Model the fold of this input.
Amino acid sequence: MPDAHPSDPALALYHTLENVQWQRSFDARSLTRGQGYARQGRVRHGTRPEQEGEMLVLRAQVDGSGRSRYLTSLAVDPHNPPMGVVSDCSCPVGRQCKHAVAVIQSFIDELEANGSKRPGITAGA
Done:
């Protein structure tokens, strides 16, 4: 796969999430609940996407039920789309959870709200 990703990790992550069809990495319940968490503003930003070797990584804290706050990390490899999204969370589920969906959806929504939408990418993915 040619390296068509911008040097900005945020733009590269945005493109890569679309290319790997990130929603396929999560079950329907996690998608629905995680997108709800994103709409409710439960994702606490504080880290920007980073390039770590071949991987694009995003970390954030997500407010869970009650007073719980979970540290959620996710990674994608732009050169290996079949890998999809790999996530890790401090919640009881541990991986591929609603908190990771919330982080991704918030990241995408924030980029698009700030006018960072690129040609050829549709909103609401």
User: Anything to note?
Assistant: Residues 1-5, 119-125 have pLDDT under 50 and may be disordered. The first strand starts at residue 43 and ends at 44. The chain has three helices and five strands.
